[in-house]
Amino acid sequence: MNVFQVIWRNALHRKTLSILTMLSVALTAALLLFVLMWNEGVEKGAEKGYGPFEITMGAEGSKTQLAMSTYYHIGAPTGNIPNAIYEQVKKEAEAEEVFAITTGDNLNGYPIVGVDAGYFAVRYGDKQLASGSLYGGLGEAVIGSHAARTLGLKVGDTFKGGHGLVHSAEAAGEHAEEHHEKESGEHADASREGAQGDHNEHEGHDEHDGHEAFSYKVVGILPPLHSPDDRAVFTTLDYAWAVHGEEAQHDREVTALMVKPKSLLGAQALKNKYDAMTGLQAMYTGKAVADVVNVVDKGTQVVQIVTYLCVLLAALTLLLSLLAAASERRKDVALLRLIGKPGRYVWTALVGEGVFLTAGGLLFGLLLGHSAGAAASSLLFDFAGIQIDPWSLAPGELLLAGGAVLLGIAASAIPAWQVYRVDPLYLFRS
User: Fold this and answer.
1) How far is CA 269 from CA 97, 98, 259, 265, 307, in A?
2) Given 239, 258, 292, which residue is the final one in a domain?
3) One domain for residues 198 and 235
4) Whole-number Å distance between alpha carbons of 386 and 42
5) C-alpha to C-alpha distance for 377 and 371, rounded to whole angstroms
6) 194/204 Cα distance (integer angstroms)
């Protein structure tokens, strides 16, 4: 009987414990792999998140909030700024490219972003659209690849947007909750709240009517850009002014400005000049994104601590399983030694069982981790704007595999040594 048959029969002899041990290793490996893919997604998202736009301007408020809403399409913007600021920044000698965006509406939860069509060439170069062409007039729209795939949109389709940055059902739920809170208020304030409610309802109807009257036509589908723009809907800058009744020049506002400076000195000059203006903030985009990544890293560190504890538990499970098996196989080992089997044969049979259990659990765990990544990738991208490539080799995955095998060898060596060093005649006499 060769050594591989011995290993296989030993594992089958205690199949319940063997399966539990492999599952422990598999779940630990899957969790570790998912953390690796998450880290890679965060790092790539940070690198590709803002392109060449080193300066971002918007209403005063949180810098991270401005960066997340402008480039990652997550959360609400800090507010609006006058369109006149945009016209002024475009004339600055230090600014190579300036793009304003208008946001505030959504298509089934995907943000509608108004921006000049030249943005795509500056941000992504000369990439060809997956189908159709870029928009050129009011009401025309280009859909990000992820949003188009999820919503089933194609060139020629029409749609109507909803007010706000959340899905209409979500917004309806929030509206219902607010309405309930108003209804449960004190009776003494009923007349005043009723009057205010009538006013808000009238404004809400105007807002709703504006969106219902404005239709978009899909003229193009973007290729996969592997950035948060994959889950956005793009149209002309003036869509928000048309929908919300800001036709007058002095009423027009924009949400944020994305500025590509000509030089580092130019970036500093623009930042200092416009950051000093009342009601306006200008920031270094990279610093704001780095702050977001640092916050995410702290959360990831907590997950890593839990993962390391899982690794420890998996190693202990493997060790206990092999110790229990070793106590049953003392006479088997003694017989192998008495009939003259070489030491390496005995050692391979003892250590090989641990390596077999570890390798089996590892392979299943890697498959489980990649499958979980594939199943969660779309949801993760929708929720947090983090894009992972579930079927590619994650950084550190080979190190994970090698470490798991070494862990199996180390855990197997302890019970193997305990059994091998006992005198075979003593084992039989006992």
Assistant:
1) 15, 15, 12, 6, 46
2) 292
3) yes
4) 6
5) 10
6) 15
pLDDT band with cut points at 50, 70 and 90 for residue 429 = low
DSSP 132: E
Helix 330-338 × helix 343-384 angle, to 10°:
140
* C-alpha to C-alpha distance for 324 and 330, rounded to whole angstroms: 11
Distance CA 313, CA 28 (A): 9
- Start-to-end CA span in the chain (Å): 27
Q: Residue 282: phi, psi to the nearest 5?
A: -125, 135
- Could you give the CA distance from residue 155 to residue 143 in angstroms, rounded to a whole number? 9
Last residue of a domain, which of 264, 292, 320? Answer: 292
Q: What is the dihedral of CA 15, 18, 20, 26, to 10 degrees?
A: -130
Cα 82 → chain centroid: 33
Residues 6+ apart with CB under 8 A from 44: 226, 387
Q: Are 209 and 306 within one domain? A: no
Q: Domain residues for 183?
A: 49-292
Decide: helix, strand or coil at residue 353: helix
Contact between 235 and 114 under an 8 Å Cβ cutoff? The reply is yes
Token pair belonging to 81: 């700024």
Instruction: Write out the H or E segment, with its range, that includes residue 335.
Output: helix 330-338
CA distance 202 to 375: 44
Domain count along the chain = 2
Is 31 in the same domain as 54?
A: no
Tell me the pLDDT band of 172, cut-offs 50, 70 and 90: very low
CA distance 69 to 83: 18
Reported as half-sphere exposure (CB side, CA atoms, 13 A), residue 167 has a value of: 8
Q: How far is CA 102 from the centre of its chain?
A: 24
The Cα 314–Cα 304 span in angstroms is 15
Alpha-carbon torsion, ordered 136, 141, 147, 150, to 10 deg: -130
What values do phi and psi take at 260, rounded to 5?
-100, 105
Q: Which residues touch 112 (CB under 8 Å, ≥6 apart)?
A: 103, 104, 105, 106, 141, 161, 216, 232, 233, 234, 235, 239
Confidence of residue 312 (pLDDT cuts 50, 70, 90): confident
Tokens of residue 390, six digits: 């579930």
Q: What is the DSSP string of 206-217?
A: HHHHHHHH--EE
The proportion of the chain whose per-residue pLDDT surpasses 70, expressed as a percent, equals 72
